[in-house]
Amino acid sequence: MVNLEPTPSLVIKNVSKKFPGVEALKNINLDIYSGEIHAILGENGAGKSTLMKILVGIIPRDSGEILLENKSLHLENPRLALQAGIALVHQDLSLLPYLSVAENIFLGRWPKKGISIDWESMIETTNQLLNRFQVKVDPRTLVGTLSVAEQQLIEILKAISHSHVKILLLDEPTSALSGEEINRLFQILLEIKSEGKSIIFISHKIDEAVKISDRITVLKDGEKVITDTKLNLDEKTIIYHMTGKYIDLDNFRHTPPVKEKNIALSLEEVGTKFYKKKISLNIYQGEILVVFGLMGSGKTTLARGLFGFETLEGTIRLFGNPVIINHPKIAIHLGIGYIPEDRRFGLIYELPVYANITLAILKKMIRNGVLQIKKEHEVAKHYVHALQIKPPNIFREILYLSGGNQQKVLLARWLAREPKILIMDEPTRGIDVGAKFEIRNFVKEMVREGLTVIYITSDPLEAIEMGDRVVVLRNGQIVTTFNNPLGLDKSEILAAASGVHYGREK
């Protein structure tokens, strides 16, 4: 008999990967077919990124085999993966802003005419590629002048400009795109699919995965839970496979309104030009308001905007008074502190602990034009003791502290300023359990003393445990508010953030 079953283009057989203390992937088996869009879904820590990094040679697998068109691959780096026909487009774009579109697409392989670059040929070839996918951009345009959405498309076209690429991996490709831009991206993905190429689509966004993919694989705790066609997997079932719990979406939790308190911060139709829909929200004095969202939800944009790093439109009132926050200096003057998503942008690694703690209050440390070193040391020692920073040595360079203790130093810096409002963006990401517990407890203690905290997180369990209220963002707008999150199931928050309840008020 003739075998009518299609042959997989890419085969992943029993692939496993361990990191210290974590089994990131456990015997993953997966087939990817030519001309299919295959979505891989899972919560944070499910193993999606680890699998992608193995497929393009960023990290080695511990065991198992990867076959492309029946040939076993031994990928030691992304260059070898690309030569084999596998390309990855990261969620953090790698284009060079001061080079043109054409120069970026053909970077490292510019056509030559004799010993010179053949600019005419490169621009013509780029034009053909852009026209093929109806991307209306001039090849001579500097990439840095393009919108994020246009840059995303150029990054994808750069990957498929290698004619031998058979597998295109997209890591959270819609995280920074608006609704119309996502639709345009999906049109291009369907065109790429029609050419027989395979697309692996990594995402947190369940509704988008269901819309664009042919098949869906769900990973949980490093294991494959299920692979099936999207016709057999509705959003409720996917949430169940991702979390291990089923939600009755028809009787989705309604929570009573919060009791009125003094309003510390009021947002009226606040947003950016990027998002059409705006946010209106009251944040009360002495509460922890958790802002929960997945990648690209707008939560970090909101945090940065409230601290003056991003331009926000709309009306902001601080304790009833309208304010315009267009620079971090203004935010600090108004009594707002900000712990960024990436502590590398908040700490000065070459300076010791005490200098990092007192950095935001140096003016208070100066008397008659002289920096009071002794006073500076006393303040630092107080917070080292209060936050249990280890080692308890204020002269130790930040560089040599663990991630958890570095984060405590950053928290100490802002608490030393005695802010009225503290914005914390993913404050416990990448730190150990003990440090998480200590930071959370200290924050709750400060809130009892009157501090107002805006706590940004993409961890649903952390949202439940930390928040007096939990606001869920998606595509720059509030889709759900949970006023009494204790006892809430994380599946409910994840469902709202993933688009299962998009547009419904809770």
How would you characterize this protein structure?
It is found in: Cell membrane. It holds the Pfam family ABC_tran. It comes from Candidatus Atribacter allofermentans. The protein is of the alpha/beta class. The chain has 4 domains: 10-85 and 164-246, Rossmann fold (3-Layer(aba) Sandwich), CATH 3.40.50.300; 99-157, no CATH class; 255-335 and 419-501, Rossmann fold, CATH 3.40.50.300; 346-418, no CATH class. The chain is built from 16 helices and 24 strands. It has helices at residues 48-55, 78-84, 101-105, 119-132, 148-160, 179-194, 206-212, 235-243, 299-306, 328-333, 353-357, 373-386, 403-416, 433-448, 460-466, 490-498; strands spanning 10-19, 22-32, 37-41, 63-68, 71-72, 86-89, 112-113, 116-117, 167-171, 198-203, 215-220, 223-229, 263-271, 279-284, 288-292, 313-318, 321-323, 336-339, 366-367, 370-371, 421-425, 452-457, 469-474, 477-482. The strands form 6 sheets. A 6-stranded mixed sheet has the order 6-9-10-3-11-12, with helices on both faces. A hairpin with a 2-residue loop joins strand 7 (112-113) and strand 8. Helix 12 (373-386) crosses helix 13 and helix 13 packs parallel to helix 14 (433-448). 43% of the residues are buried. Mean pLDDT is 86; it is low at 249-256 and 502-506.
